[in-house]
Specification:
alpha/beta; DHBP synthase; about 190 residues
Length: about 190
Amino acid sequence: MALRRGGLVVFPTDTVYGVAALARNANAVAAIYAAKQRPPEFPIPVMVAEPSGVGDVARILPGFRELTEAFWPGPLTIILPKRDVLPAIVTAGGDTVALRIPDHPLALALLRLVDEPLAVTSANLSGHPPARTAQEARAQLGGRVDAIVDSEPAPGGEPSTILDLTLSPPAILRSGPVSEAQIWAMFYK
């Protein structure tokens, strides 16, 4: 499998098509930056198959479990303090990591098959619109990745909402499919 060999794989998620590498393989993550022409100061989110896998790469904070029960799998990315098992390149040298579980059967099947956290970001050149189809991803990243899983268009078409739980109070860093009202309803019941 290309991922296990340190390769890059493009696949659909519930939001947009993503490009993935093993999160604990610094060389593979560096290949994502190169393929996307992504600035090195932009961290790459990590996807896991189950909420129980988050503790392997991040420290759990208050409110996390309630958020995952309400919105995972789904289009909510949650920022937590990272553990040292993640290479610095994943987090652009920072001490936090953005985590998500996609609500897409193919993405979940791939995560379960690999059984490792994956560094995953949108399958597009940096600064270009995210790919909603395999063809759009191929047009932007074609010869720069090892495999493209061609499936139906990504159903969401909009990147995930990003919530930083390391801030007090927590802050929404990017609006997306999970609304601010939905998130704050979790904290202020």
